[in-house]
Amino acid sequence: MENNKFPKGFLWGGATAANQLEGAYLTDGKGLSVADTMPGGKKKFEVLKSKEFVWTIDEATYYYPNHQGINHYHHYKEDIALFAEMGFKCYRLSIAWSRIFPKGDEQEPNQAGLEFYDQLFDECLKYNIKPVVTISHYEMPLHLVTKYGGWKNRQLVKFYEHYARVILTRYHKKVHYWMTFNEINGAFHFPALSQGLVPSNGSLDKQMIFQAFHHQFVASSLAVKIAHELDPNLKIGCMILYATTYAFDSNPKNQLAALQENQEMNYYCTDVQVRGEYPTFSKRLWRKYGVEQPQFEEGDLALLRDYPVDYIGFSYYMSTVVDKVSTTATSVSGNLLGGVANPFLKASEWGWQIDPTGLRIALNELYDRYKKPLFIVENGLGAFDQPDEHYYVADDYRIDYLRSHIETMAEAIEDGVDLIGYTPWGCIDLVSASTGEMSKRYGFIYVDLDDQGQGSFARYRKKSFYWYKNIITTNGADLK
């Protein structure tokens, strides 16, 4: 397919998260994060949803793969050089909050942590790679959960504000694009990652989840305020998990259910952060869960109104299907959420339904609703990769997945969507957030490491590495 639909300056790159690749989990003064207590393995979410889980590390029972990650902390120069070889225009990463404030409630930051990110950003800029930084990506300091109870506690707003002020002040001349919280809406289904809530400290109480959302909304607006006071040209985005939502059939009950699922998952958090106000359906949504309006402090709503985000970052891996009528539909898994099987789609090896057309729909839905620039900051295929004797992976299945999604991105741009960039998830193999496995690989770069943390940590270019390099070189014009 030949096309020249991508605008000049389009931000091609890749995406990672600190807790999934850095490792060095106690190095140079870093404190424990919530991610450090989350075990690996296919039963990871089952463990975190149990009433017995209490945010402690039990190495006698579990393995914790993110403690070493892929040791990006000591390999970042090599990794960024490989990104530069692919031609990355940007690199989406996150700062580990507990590397800057080990407990989260200190006044003075950890200088070694600050210096690490100075060096990392400088390495990116050496190759003209723009850092795109998530302020909090599923790794809040553990102390803020064990002492304060996570984001249900209003005090976390001031701790986040202080953290954001420190990193924005220090790095704003190096980092132009920021996002406040990763997949903030994912807490509807799994608040452990982003809100620090599990059954033992509040995840079963929807009132606490909605209160935690409000505190995060306030914190997000404070970050926007700080950034724009430092430099009005800085771009601060939100980041949501987006799954295009279909009704299973034309039954009006399913059509209504799909509309309401779309409102809840895709728009509730986004409306507050982008439009600067709670959506009109909020009261009905609160009633659905049997909760009261979250507690607002004086000035909260004005802050939300005055400091909305500049763009919308989002992840897109799959679509979902809603069926409230049939009792025989087959359920499927997905990125923190599931649904029923779509008979028109194939699925990945982890059961996530592959739907590139759904991405075009997502882009149109988001841009039509908000009229703000969009940035696809996660998209990719988790798969078992089988390297040959030279550690080369012929991952045509990944190329096919990415090609089909890039094609629909081009069509969405033709539809009139303002799309500014694309950073496929796990541009280098890293620890899976959902299962803690290395064997669920997304990257263009193979890392020699298995699910038990054994391997050489050596990096190898996959077939998709060279394919994506050509995509960037031609600005998406050559998708062969």
Describe it for me?
The chain has helices at residues 18-21, 44-48, 72-86, 97-100, 111-126, 143-146, 155-171, 191-195, 206-230, 252-275, 282-288, 300-306, 356-370, 396-414, 463-473, and strands spanning 11-15, 90-94, 130-136, 177-181, 235-241, 244-247, 311-315, 319-322, 331-332, 339-340, 374-378, 419-422, 445-447, 459-461. By secondary structure, the protein is α/β, with parallel strands linked by helices. The chain has a single domain (11-473), classed as Glycosidases (TIM Barrel). Strands 1-2-3-4-5-7-11-12 form an eight-stranded parallel beta barrel, surrounded by five helices. The protein has a two-stranded parallel ribbon with strand order 6-8. The radius of gyration is 21 Å and the shape is globular.
Main pleated-sheet profile: 8 strands, parallel, barrel
Oligomer kind = single chain
Strand order of the largest sheet: 1-2-3-4-5-7-11-12
For this structure, the CATH topology is: TIM Barrel
User: Strand-and-helix sequence, N→C?
Assistant: EHHHEHHEHHEHHEEHHHEEEEHEHEEEH
Structural class: alpha/beta
What proportion strand?
5-15%
CATH class: Alpha Beta
Which word captures the global form? Answer: globular
In the CATH hierarchy, the architecture is Alpha-Beta Barrel
Q: Nearest-angstrom radius of gyration?
A: 21 Å
Mean pLDDT score, rounded?
A: 95
CATH superfamily: Glycosidases
Q: Give the uncertain stretches in residue-range form.
A: none
Task: Give the SSE layout.
Elements: E1 11-15, H1 18-21, H2 44-48, H3 72-86, E2 90-94, H4 97-100, H5 111-126, E3 130-136, H6 143-146, H7 155-171, E4 177-181, H8 191-195, H9 206-230, E5 235-241, E6 244-247, H10 252-275, H11 282-288, H12 300-306, E7 311-315, E8 319-322, E9 331-332, E10 339-340, H13 356-370, E11 374-378, H14 396-414, E12 419-422, E13 445-447, E14 459-461, H15 463-473
Helix pairs in contact: 3-5, 7-9, 9-12, 13-14
